[in-house]
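The aim of this short unit is practical: by the end, you should be able to scan a pair of folded records and say something sensible about each. We start with the first protein, listed as its amino acid sequence and then its structure tokens.
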Amino acid sequence: MKLTVVGILLLVLFALLVTISPISGQDQQSSFQYKYPGPEANYVSPFSSLIFREGSRFELEQISSKALSVIGSRSGNHTGTLALSNDKRTILFYPVQPFAYDERVTVEILPGIRTADGEAIKASRHQFQTLSRPVDPAEAAQALNLITGERHQYPPTPLKAGAYSAVALSKAPYITRPDLSNTMSVNVITSAHGTDKGLIFITHVGLLPNPDTGLLILDDQAEPIYLKVTTPNKLATDFKVQTVMGTRYLVYYAGIYMVMDDTYTVVDTWTMKNGHHADLHEIQLLDNGNAFMLSYTPVAMDLSPYGGPVNGIVIDIVIQELDPSKQVIFEWHSLDHIPLTDSYVSPADSPVDYLHTNAIEVDTDGNLLVSNRNSSDVIKINRSTGDVIWRLGGKQNDFAFTNDKGFSHQHDIRRLANGNISLFDNGNMKLPPYSRVVEYTINETLKTVTRVWQYPATQDRFAEFMGNGQRLGNGNTMISWGSITDIEEVKPDGSTALKMELEGHTYRAFRWEWEAKPSELPSAVLITTGENSATIYTSWNGATQITGYEVHSGKTAGSLTKSLTAPRTGFETTINLSDLDPETCVFKLRPVHAKGDSTPFSNIMYRLDRPRCIELLTDKTYLSSFIAN
């Protein structure tokens, strides 16, 4: 068939009309790439908010309140409040009233939502299902207690900020800090040689037979730098340094996640929303102020198809991302993505802890790596859609191990700076079982995994539970051996740079560079040892870079001068004083900082073996002058 000139021109014009984008941005349309609860979600808490993300920025005034219809099959029409996430890329809807249990909820996106660029969001409709029934609080608490070994209330009661005591760790009480007297001892087995920079961060988890819980920062000689006893009956876990908006903080779990600044002041707390409570296994604070946490949420389920009870309980793993305003901007439920039968735990044995997730890692591409102990796999979750991208290990393994037989019951998946991944392989399913830290190269396109490093090379260690491996800046690896109660730093060649034995269990072990000046004053105690001699005991819990202590003394508090400087010898330093002037009554100390930074004075101490010194404590004129100064 021959085309006329007119015909050719018409074809060209038609092609142009098809390919040329609309002149007005208001004619363009887009769809939400992420919705929670998503289409056909089946285990939604009645207390959930709704989340919508397209990828572009929004302005609240460009979103019509009539553009969203939310109707429950039992609870009816839901009105609510619209909000935006901190970065204005996620639309949030907070229903005024919760949904009902066991109902079908229909969500319609109607015309009236535009991005900040004027792009219209396409109309759409989807449905989700709420939980079939609430789980009895006592039953839920019992299930969680069996799984974590922790005493749970359910629903959990959040702690009030500041409602915890600071106490420490040594079998012999410190004279300056008698409150710090109930903790585990740490012994050096292999002295430090070739270790990386920084201090060691561990917790006394609080597992039986010693239920005391606490935080410890240690130097390479196992001498404490910082000690804190945490909330009774709440396991102490995940004590680490995290950076938020360029500032470094200490974060730990003690019922909820606590955030301390470099003065050890609690400046923030984190837990989860939408009817879920943060679990003890992991928090990841991002530099933009967001946080990832996970929840072990008991869900009522009929387990009779698996040979279990009709009124069974399954632990649904819930992962949430919250923005700095504590708004949930991402939520993922394992039961919507991972079948019960993928677990190595029998679904007939209620409560079914079918995944036992123990680590979340934000991958280099922004997606999530998640470690699941009871399915012996690592899954990668698309952070934009919530879909599972791939699974490594377990029954649904997508990868071929080229020179390794794989891992089981693992902990602590991490993406390393060199692009490889590492994990702590507990190895419970090996015959015989043995544990190791292993590093793999992973080709996500060809779906191959190759082992490039492991420690130890032998098969003579078995940590039944817990454990982690942290790759350090100098190439060493800091390891917690979990149930074995050892921590160890090893070099790339497998030789030991440092090894310590713990009296109890630590959840993880880390090495971080950390500098701090506590908000509390240094503590000091003066004990008279003779007619002209005395001993001063001093400590400053949590202070770093302290090389010694100046002793200031005088006849009165207003006439103190520096008399000597003594080196710091440990958490509590002992300073012996001799040939004291009989007229010298008052003492105080000031720490010496390695960088010359200013430091505060300790409390004032008085000699109590001299009548004149005792008179100062009863002299109202003197005391008034002292208080005024």
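Turning to the second protein, read its sequence before its tokens, just as you did above.
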Amino acid sequence: MPTCRIRSARLRALFITALALFAVGALILRVAQLADRPLHGDEANQAHRAGILIETGVYKYDPVEHHGPTLYYLTLPLALLRGQHTFADTDEYTFRLVPALFGVALVLLLIPVADGLGKSAALWAAAFTALSPAFVYYSRYYIQETLLVAFTFAAIACAWRYLQRPRAAWAVGFGAAIGLMHATKETCVLAWFAMAVAAAPIALVQLRAARRAEAASPPLDRRVLARHAALAVLVALIVSVVLFSSFFTHAAGPLDSVRAYFPYLHRASADPAAGGDAHAHNHPWPYYLRLLLYTRRAPGPWWSEALILGLAAVGVVAAWRPRQPRVLPRFLAIYAPVLAAVYAVIPYKTPWCLLSFHHGFILLAGFGAVALIRLARLAPLRIAVAILIALATLQLGRQAVNAAFEYPADPRNPYVYAHTASAHLRLVQRMHDLAAVHPDGRALRVHVITPDGDYWPLPFYLRSFTQVGYFTVQPERPDADVLIVASSIADAVQQRLTGDYHVEHGSLRPGVLLRVYIRTQLWDAFMNTRR
């Protein structure tokens, strides 16, 4: 008996060590050169909201845009720890560090579910999570998606632990995770739906098995289960209400979190006349599948996470084998495909949304990798299969490096979507150079004129400039020290200018060009510094 315990302790130590190494690898891929890529417009928009909270301590939930408050509230302590007390003080690293750390947390959250998946399967899943190009790339994005996936996984992990040992603490953890999901992004309801669909048949099977085993062991006290369920619901409501109400300073927030579903349903309509910009993001149902299976935009490299999808398919089949009646893989075998199907049928699609269901496939892929290896009866053949899967996994890592470091804002990267052009940073640098020679410094007057408010991420990059005006229609008197104008209306704006200007050209993102007007006197002062 002592020998068995020692062996079990050693195996657990090896498992924790291996998982920690994967977590370290995930951390390196997610935080290295974190500030180098220009901010996406959505990132800048989120950063601006967080900047208001950092600077004023005020947050009010917007039921039309920006999603839930967890991203902003989690950014606040990081900014303060780094000595950043105003929006102008902040930088890309502070904002992106939040999702990056949650991307690493997805690896560590495999610890509480390791007995459900199997330790070997959990290690494979850790490798896939750490190296998945999609997860690496979007864990470096200041958006809510990685947080939503982490809180979803935390809810699943707490539910699993509760099944193993029904305790109030796990019910509280489950409720907190559900509340955090809601306070992160409105699409949490899609994950809840998939969870319910997957849990229902599993629960029926377990109840039948429990009834047959009642003679051998006492049944669970239903009153205790009811109390724990009520406790979980109460905790979820408290977490959600506290965050949406901005810690009880914005009473309309919790109600707005419910009202938000009306504009989001409106936006998700396939009809371009539905309003908003939903039609700009409408894609056919196999959009996510194509991204994950294979993409090559010549003359760039090819991209594919088909390894994960293939092993996930093996995992789905293996989960239902009679000899391996594992509850958690069976739950995932229903949950992940259902969630993927829901996202597929919604016309409104952005590529980062695939993380929600792709994480389920990653967990299944870990289970599938072990099942595939065990199909080989001879030890040498098992080793060969394991090596082949490991080599293919390293190729995922190569793609992750390409996505994060080689092609971070390049349209040849399939995960780059309506992204800010790298050339935009030259415009930002030009603005700082002009401010350096202007008598008022960063208080020089700047007018940004673009239709439909399509000027993000400029408000982030010009956050230290104090006299910037943003216009969605042409002002009667557009003159300023610098004008940044959408090319589509630049000729009309130019006709209203009364001063002399030097003209340059820039870009916001591919296909969205800008014209920059710099007062001749300011331009000459700048050019004198270059002689």
